[in-house]
Amino acid sequence: MHVREGDIILLYRSLKRKFVVKVEKGRDIHTDLGVIRLSNVIGLPYGSRVKTHLGEEFILLKPSILDAVYIGFKRKTQVIYPKDAAYIILTASVSSGSRVVEAGTGSGCLTAILAYLVKPTGRVYSYEVREEFLEVAKENLNSVGLLDYVELKLKDIRKGIDEDQIDAVILDLPDPWNVVEHARKCLRSGGVLVAFLPTINQIERTSIVLRDLGFIDICVVELLLREYRVERDSTRPKTLMVGHTGYIVSARRP
Amino acid sequence: MHVREGDIILLYRSLKRKFVVKVEKGRDIHTDLGVIRLSNVIGLPYGSRVKTHLGEEFILLKPSILDAVYIGFKRKTQVIYPKDAAYIILTASVSSGSRVVEAGTGSGCLTAILAYLVKPTGRVYSYEVREEFLEVAKENLNSVGLLDYVELKLKDIRKGIDEDQIDAVILDLPDPWNVVEHARKCLRSGGVLVAFLPTINQIERTSIVLRDLGFIDICVVELLLREYRVERDSTRPKTLMVGHTGYIVSARRP
Amino acid sequence: MHVREGDIILLYRSLKRKFVVKVEKGRDIHTDLGVIRLSNVIGLPYGSRVKTHLGEEFILLKPSILDAVYIGFKRKTQVIYPKDAAYIILTASVSSGSRVVEAGTGSGCLTAILAYLVKPTGRVYSYEVREEFLEVAKENLNSVGLLDYVELKLKDIRKGIDEDQIDAVILDLPDPWNVVEHARKCLRSGGVLVAFLPTINQIERTSIVLRDLGFIDICVVELLLREYRVERDSTRPKTLMVGHTGYIVSARRP
Amino acid sequence: MHVREGDIILLYRSLKRKFVVKVEKGRDIHTDLGVIRLSNVIGLPYGSRVKTHLGEEFILLKPSILDAVYIGFKRKTQVIYPKDAAYIILTASVSSGSRVVEAGTGSGCLTAILAYLVKPTGRVYSYEVREEFLEVAKENLNSVGLLDYVELKLKDIRKGIDEDQIDAVILDLPDPWNVVEHARKCLRSGGVLVAFLPTINQIERTSIVLRDLGFIDICVVELLLREYRVERDSTRPKTLMVGHTGYIVSARRP
């Protein structure tokens, strides 16, 4: 496969030096290792090496969904980490054909991952109250060709959920307890609610409301990701670590 | 939706008491809370409550893919945990349409999760050298209707990979370094190799071979999952924890 | 040094097979590897090997304070783990000459460690409301010769602390917030209060009371201990782990 | 107690703004909140508040051993964390009267904590090959009045240990396996060797040498410290965390 105008590409140099950009004629990418002319990239096969004007090499790749979201997307908000997104989507059994309600949309990062999984026959209904975020999310989703699988809704999910027979409701907002009753109505039997929350107090309150409203299979977990620096005869975890992102509460409608 | 003969159902009582069974006329499920007659379950709507002969209630649900795999599957081998499976599938960008090579098949747990994600248009090529495991995996995959998306192969993946233009190679075997060269050939540009390994020595050796053979974007991580016991005014992590499952090495073909 | 009657000794076979016993003429120790006659042990130098009647060898050692407390002590209560005890004593700057108030005494495990550190010139004042625990603690402390450095007090510390100019107050009880005011009075300027607590709700409440009563340098931490199984070319963390013991709140009187 | 010239004092403003300084007439302490004249501090009782020339208050305290070491000491080297120091000293049963061998001295941080615990009758024998570090350590230890309990030795511990009947040998150097044989000779029966090491490869090699040379009770652990940010109804772990310092290997001479 060869690079065409309009493609989103990954320029990879190292774990810390990656760029996700849209190929446009005449556009230049400025890096600390020199400038890459995107005009020169058009027509090259994926996997090629391209040089900056200083002769430094980058590898040209198709971005994965994680590259696209975590490197390419504009961000207006705190973004969910891949470790948490991964656990959420498997806990919620999201795959092609799933119908998922999500709130808030934020910059659309989790929305994009969900859309990537439910395509081509499923759908993501994403609620957001801040119009400026919806705009950013729309642009981000469009840039990776996933907007078709998403319905972006300018609506406060605390006021109600319009859909029904939903497979999963995924909540990344500060007061999910105000959404549990709506989620119960929109979920199919056995459907999953997942909430992502930074504080212990929020998980306590959410869990209690879930129990009170008859949800079952309630689990609360957190995930710690530890990265390793591997060298021959000198392998060790990295010194600094993200020690906390958030807790994940999951439950099912009976 | 109503239960039909031949359905796989989840009988849920509590976090610790769940059964995944196939509905067959005349079959009885013996639990420590009494016997459930499956004949009586046929025709009931999902979400119903059913009683054992001792009057204890279970809720009748459609099992999620995780229920099916982790409760319903016969296991002949050590099984990958959901936290690791989740991280692996997102790292490998597996979704509908993906073409994935996996080894070894084992009991088919990860195979099933992969098949669930690549369906309906993708495919999982799963290599295994022990014929008895392939039989178990086949039966497990068939029980959840996912066998159509999987090609089970009685072949030592160290001897070579038959496919090409593969999106991801996922290795859960003790010596992935013997597969890296084959993986490089079968992966498309930008395709991902992921290896799951229990010891530090294995990740060191695997990482070095990946680097030597030109793979990029090499990451080594481990995930710790901590479960919480939530009670009003008394919330805390659970005392016992699985402190180690394995390390995850990921890399990409340039 | 040679073993004398009345000595407390450690009989060591492996990490999982250790016994701490008092040497008494005519006493036999029954293990799953056979019987050890303590009469035969008297007069042997420490470091000797002794055999059971089945010919299995144990090594004869002087027990460390941790052996004495965690293997030798009678336990009537949940016991603080070494990782937490260690962090607490260093945070509280306990060493020879320190004057420490502790509550509740429980089985006297932390009391013994504190006494071991403050000896010979310091003193531990240990409060307990359940008389039967004080009896056990007394016996335990006496068995290791540390009773002289401890004042065991049958008193509810919530009713007040009798001592003053105390260097550290260490609280292992469910409602430390009821002791903070008393602790403030008994501590010297710069003296440290440490509370060990299993739930998040308790640390929140304790921290807030500490702040409200003018304590400074308030820190809340938890410690996770991970054990490794080391084998040549096969080193990994142990599978099972204690995922939670408790949180440690520390603060100082200005 | 009142501040006298020559005292080491702690000036505390908040968890992030602490100073440990020696009181000298005419000396000024420059902080981002203004200047504190130490001449004005002499004669004040500990626990007083002092003001900078901008009117900002600091609390005047006697520093704890941790304040003295971690805030007051000059550092020329990577320094062991309190969580690890705490676990090491309890594992090695260090208390008043203990005779401890340590290498390398480095900036003397662990040396000072050991001296603080063994005083007044015990002794720390600290080996270091780099003379400039010994100078720094000497100055640091002297500043807190602990030099009398330490023998600083300009000697490569790999060449041998001069002392005998030692209670504990504590090694913070890259190749402890070269010291194990010497440690075995100098330790009393039951004495403890502890090594602190950043990489997995080092713990594997050290553990194997310990086993081969007949050490018993070999344990390898690591400690993860997680700090919490406590606010009413909003309590959570801190986002950033030190994810790795080092592994601790301990063993005993039979």
Strand content of chain A: 25-35%
For the sheet with most strands of chain A, the description reads: 8 strands, mixed
Backbone CA Rg of chain A: 20 Å
CATH-wise, what's the superfamily of the largest domain in chain A? Vaccinia Virus protein VP39
Distance between the termini of chain A: 47 Å
Low-confidence stretches of chain A: none
Number of strands of chain A: 15
Number of helices of chain A: 6
CATH class of the largest domain in chain A: Alpha Beta
The most extensive interface, with participating residues per chain, is: A-B, 59 and 59 residues
- Written as H for each helix and E for each strand, in order along the chain, the element string of chain A is EEEEEEHHEHEHEEHEHEEEE
Question: Level of helix content of chain A?
Answer: 10-25%
Shape of chain A: globular
What is CATH's topology name of the largest domain in chain A?
Rossmann fold
The average pLDDT value of chain A, as a whole number, equals: 97
What is the second-level CATH architecture of the largest domain in chain A?
Answer: 3-Layer(aba) Sandwich
- Total domain units of chain A: 2
Which oligomeric state applies? homotetramer
Give the gist of this structure.
The structure is a homotetramer of 254-residue chains. With 254 residues, chain A is α/β, with parallel strands linked by helices. Chain A has 6 helices and 15 strands.
